[in-house]
Structures are given as C-alpha cells and as structure tokens.
C-alpha cells in the first residue's frame, strides 16, 4: 500500500513513513457552542483548539454537553480494499462523519440532563467506509461525542469523557482483530469488577453480619456497596449484550449522586461527632437537591445551578470522610489505617484527571471504588483477628479466674456463712434442751449474721445497686467503699447529666451502665492490687455524644509496651477493660511507666 504524500501531508510528518493501518493525528476540538447537528459545523476555524487524542478531555470542557473532534488525513482510496476507521476507545456515545457522510455511531447521544439512555463506557468502534466517500486530496473526519450531562462545570459521568485511544485508518481485515481484542478485554474487566463487587456484598451480608456484633454503620456499609453495584449496571458488558434492566446512564448517575452521602454517613455513624440535628438538616437539603436533579421536566438552567450546590455537598462529604478516617487513625482504632488508605485512593480516583496515568481502559474510578470497599473489609478483618487474639488470652484467664472464684465462694461459704449456720444449729439445740431465752436471742443473731454474709457474697457476684441507684450514686458509693477497705484516697469528679441519676430499667441501658461501671471498677482494682497506689483520681465527664473518663493513680506503674507483649501481671484486667470498651465501641489509651503511676483515658459514645 502507498500513502500519497502532498505538501499538506508534510504537516503529518511524524507518521508519514507509517504503513497502513495509519494512526490519525493532528486533532482539533470544539465544545458545544449550541451545535447539535453536523450541518452547523461550518464555524470559524479559530474556534477549533488543538487537542491530544488518547487522553481524557481537559477539565475546561466539562461545562458542555456536546463536543466535536476533527482531523484531516490523506489516502489513496485504491490502496485499501475495504477501508475502515478503528477508534480504540470513546467515553460514551458518538457520531462519526467522514467528508459529510455519517459512517457510524454507537449508542445514543443524550440531550442536557437526559439520563434514560444506555451508553457505552469505553468501547472500541469499527466503522466501514465506502470507497466513493474518500477524496483523492484531503479527507475530513469529525467525531461528535457527549462531553457532559448538563451545562454546568463538572457535570459528567464518572471517569471523564473524550476519545481515550488511538484512531486508525486501514483495511477492515487488519483492524477487526484489534476491535475484538479490545472488546473482549473490556468484557473480561467488567466481569472481574462485577464479581469482585458481588463478593464484597456477600462478605458484608454473610460474614461480617454473623462474625461481628451489630454495629451502627452496617446499613450504610451495605448501601454503599449496593450503590456501587448499581453503578456497575452501566458497564460495557451490559451494553454489548443488551442486558440493561435499568438505563445505564440512570444507574451510573444514581450511584454518582448518592455514594458521597452514604460514605459520609458511614463514617458519621462510627464517630457521631456531629449532632443528629445538623446531620438531619444537611440530609434533607441534600436529598431535595439530588432528587430534583433526577426528576425529568425540571428547568435545565435550575439543574445546572443545583449541580454546583450538589458538588459542594459532595466535597463536604468526602472531606468529612477523610477527616473521620484521620481521626480514627489518631485514636489508634484497629483497621483505621486501612480505612484511611482506602478513602484517599477513592477520592483521587473520582477525578481521573488527578491521577498521572490511566489504567485498565480508563477504569480508575472502578478500581478506586473497589479498593475502598476492600480496604473497609480489611479493616473489619483486622478487628476480627484482634478480637480472636484477645479472646484467646481472655479465655485462658477466664478459666483460671473461674476456678479461683469457685474456691473463693467455697471459702466464703465455709468460713463465714457456714460458721454462722453451725453456731445457729448449736444454739437451736440449746434452746430445745434449756428453753433459755438468751439462746433464742443468740440463735437470731447468728441467723442475721448468716444473712448479712450471704448478701455480701451475692453483692460480690452481682452488683445490683446499679439497678436501684443509677450509675452516679453507685460510683460514689463504690469510691467510699474503696477508701474504707483500702489504704487509699479516692478523688472523684462526676460532671454527669441527669441520665445517670435515676435507676436503670431497660436491658440496653443496664448493659451500658454495667459495662461502664465494671471498666472503672477494674481500673481501680488494678491501681490498688498491682499499682499499690495510695491516691486514685476518677474524672467522669459527659458531653452530648460521649462519656470521657480518666482514671489516674500514683502507684508504681509498669512498662506498658512490655505488659502488652507478655500479658504479665495485670494483663487480664486490661484485656477485660479493652473488651468491655470494644463492646461499647469506645476508645482506650493507657499511659504508664515504672515509678510514674498509670493513667487511662477512655471515650465511649452514648448508646
């Protein structure tokens, strides 16, 4: 085959020595300008801007709905038996014109804010050309695409837009293998993304639901995965096989609109660091804006404005997600680093222009979303692994403590209650023999002492004052008891609200208060038994969302890192405290060093 070279063709010197197939270069681009039909393309040549084909369109073209690519090339028609144009990849639908002739189109170009269409995402094109359409001199190739959803900056489907691959002129027989190779690769990639997405949902529904206690963020975690799966309905595999149940454009746009909101609520439900009132107001406003964008018939100019408002909300949600992930890392939450990495990668993948390279046929956003979902799953698996290690140590200690408790109860029954009952039996025998009234009194005293001993034993096993007195009074009485039984001064400062002043009745409230009390009790006992402290301070404060507790002593302290590694003296106490705080979804930080005492900082969200 011979490429006819003319002075005009010298402008294309970089490929003038190529044999067919011939890559077309020297492209120009113009956006929108109100042009909807090919017939109105005779515009000022100065409006056409040079552009690189094979890359996503620059951000400056995102405020339009239509765009036109144009190039000129020279060929000799007789050199190709079955001339054709192969386009490696176009984001969305297209119309391709050669010398004023429509040679092909794939999908349907949508009008502003028209979502009920199914468009290809990055499929290749192969369009045959009739020989009589080719000119012996310069041939003009024009490609029309959708550049966005509406006339508002950034209003576009995820992943960017534009011609993202080579455009090649050549013989159909030479180009067909390239076309099918590209199509099959895309279908394989889409299938892989769909399978990984289904596995993500399956793990959330089956494994995490059964392995970890119910957690407040579960519904948002599941909804986020389902929204990303809904977005997968717009993948090319559904377009190729015409499997779409819901229009691909609508499924992609719903996923795009709601994912930032759901991710923000996922992190909020873990931290609860913003009031419910504020979250509710933001949610109502955001949902009104979002559904207005989805409703047909709304004034287009209003949608253009609302899109910018939505984009501000989306930026707020992503910023909050990133902030929350950073806070969880600072609080040493298990799995928080995985969450932070996932959030960062996902945010960068949303705008593909931020990434210095494109991979897997411009599917950075799908890769980023899957990376985020699996980073979240890894975080939960890290929590499961940590819980298994803690429970293993806890179970071993529990067996030992259980045996010690049985021995202690038996000793208490024998040495205390048993002695009183034995004495009561003796007095009863004397009453029968002598009928002396003083033996009746002694018998009554022995039985009273036995009842007191029984109540004391029961109180040690079940701390019932919580149910009758509430947490505040119970803690104050417990501190007084510590001072009377041990050589220690206890300072307690409770800046608590009224919710801790009343008796506890509901099971949820009782479990919450019981765990809080046991945490403080365990830390206090560790200070006395292992720290040999003479002064103990307990600061118990509340705000609208959290209880903040500080337990500090002046005891001998310990090497905290060594203690964690070896689970030596006092290890069980701290494991028990960690497990109770984990049940409450709280945070524990212990600071201690030999000879410097011990300080425990605790933060627990309200039930």
UniProtKB/TrEMBL annotation:
GO terms for molecular function: phosphorelay sensor kinase activity; protein dimerization activity. InterPro entries: Galactose-bd-like_sf, HATPase_C_sf, HATPase_dom, Sensor_HK_TwoCompSys, Sig_transdc_His_kin_sub3_dim/P. The chain crosses the membrane at residues 186-208, 220-239, 245-268, 275-299, 305-327, 334-351, 371-391. Keywords: Cell membrane, Kinase, Membrane, Transferase, Transmembrane, Transmembrane helix, Two-component regulatory system. Residues 516-606 form the Histidine kinase/HSP90-like ATPase domain. It is a multi-pass membrane protein. The keyword Iron does not apply. Residues 406-462 form the Signal transduction histidine kinase subgroup 3 dimerisation and phosphoacceptor domain. It is found in: Cell membrane. Pfam families: HATPase_c, HisKA_3. It comes from the Bacteria. The keyword Nucleotide-binding does not apply. Its main location: membrane. GO terms for cellular component: plasma membrane. PANTHER family: NITRATE/NITRITE SENSOR PROTEIN NARX-RELATED, SENSOR HISTIDINE KINASE NARS. This is Histidine kinase.
């Amino acid at each position: 085959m011979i490429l006819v070279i003319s002075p005009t063709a010298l402008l294309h010197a970089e490929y003038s020595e190529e044999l067919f197939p011939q890559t077309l270069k020297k492209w120009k681009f113009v956006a929108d300008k109100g042009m909807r039909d090919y017939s109105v393309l005779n515009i000022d040549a100065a409006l056409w801007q040079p552009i690189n084909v094979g890359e996503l369109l620059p951000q400056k073209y995102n405020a339009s709905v239509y765009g036109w690519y144009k190039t000129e090339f020279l060929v000799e028609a007789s050199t190709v038996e079955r001339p054709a144009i192969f386009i490696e990849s176009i984001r969305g639908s297209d119309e391709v014109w050669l010398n004023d002739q429509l040679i092909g189109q794939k999908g349907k170009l949508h009008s502003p804010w028209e979502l009920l269409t199914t468009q290809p995402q990055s499929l290749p094109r192969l369009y045959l050309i009739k020989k009589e359409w080719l000119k012996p001199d310069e041939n003009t190739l024009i490609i029309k695409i959708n550049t966005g959803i509406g006339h508002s900056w950034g209003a576009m489907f995820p992943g960017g837009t534009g011609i993202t691959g080579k455009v090649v002129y050549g013989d159909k027989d030479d180009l067909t293998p390239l076309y099918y190779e590209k199509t099959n690769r895309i279908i394989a990639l889409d299938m892989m993304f769909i399978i990984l997405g289904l596995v993500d949902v399956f793990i959330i529904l089956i494994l995490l639901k059964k392995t970890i206690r119910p957690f407040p963020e579960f519904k948002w975690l599941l909804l986020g995965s389902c929204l990303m799966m809904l977005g997968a309905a717009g993948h090319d595999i559904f377009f190729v096989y015409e499997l779409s149940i819901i229009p691909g454009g609508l499924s992609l746009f719903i996923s795009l609109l709601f994912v930032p909101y759901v991710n923000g609520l996922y992190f909020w439900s873990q931290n609860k660091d913003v009031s419910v009132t504020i979250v509710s107001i933001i949610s109502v406003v955001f949902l009104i804006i979002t559904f207005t964008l989805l409703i047909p018939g709304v004034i287009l100019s209003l949608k253009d404005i609302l899109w910018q408002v939505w984009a501000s909300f989306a930026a707020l949600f992503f910023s909050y997600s990133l902030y929350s992930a950073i806070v969880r890392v600072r609080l040493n939450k298990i799995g928080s680093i995985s969450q932070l990495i996932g959030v960062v990668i996902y945010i960068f993948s949303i705008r593909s222009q931020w990434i210095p390279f494109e991979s897997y046929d411009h599917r950075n956003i799908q890769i980023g979303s899957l990376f985020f979902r699996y980073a979240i799953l890894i975080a939960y698996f890290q929590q499961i692994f940590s819980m298994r290690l803690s429970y293993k140590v806890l179970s071993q200690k529990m067996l030992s403590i259980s045996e010690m408790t049985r021995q202690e109860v038996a000793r208490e029954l024998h040495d205390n209650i048993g002695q009183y009952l034995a004495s009561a039996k003796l007095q009863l025998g004397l009453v029968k023999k002598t009928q002396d009234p003083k033996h009746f009194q002694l018998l009554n005293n022995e039985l009273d002492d036995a009842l007191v001993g029984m109540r004391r034993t029961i109180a040690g096993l079940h701390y019932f004052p919580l149910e009758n007195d509430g947490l505040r009074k119970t803690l104050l009485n417990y501190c007084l008891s510590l001072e009377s039984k041990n050589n220690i001064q206890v300072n307690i400062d409770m800046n608590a609200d009224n919710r801790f002043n009343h008796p506890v009745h509901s099971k949820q409230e009782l479990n919450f208060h019981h765990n809080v009390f046991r945490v403080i009790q365990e830390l206090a006992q560790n200070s006395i038994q292992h720290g040999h402290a003479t002064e103990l301070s307990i600061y118990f404060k509340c705000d609208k969302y959290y209880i903040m507790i500080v337990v500090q002593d002046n005891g001998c302290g310990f090497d905290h890192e060594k203690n964690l590694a070896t689970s030596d003296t006092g290890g069980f106490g701290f494991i028990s405290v960690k497990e109770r705080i984990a049940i409450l979804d709280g945070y524990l930080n212990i600071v201690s060093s030999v000879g410097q005492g011990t300080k425990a900082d605790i933060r627990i969200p309200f039930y």
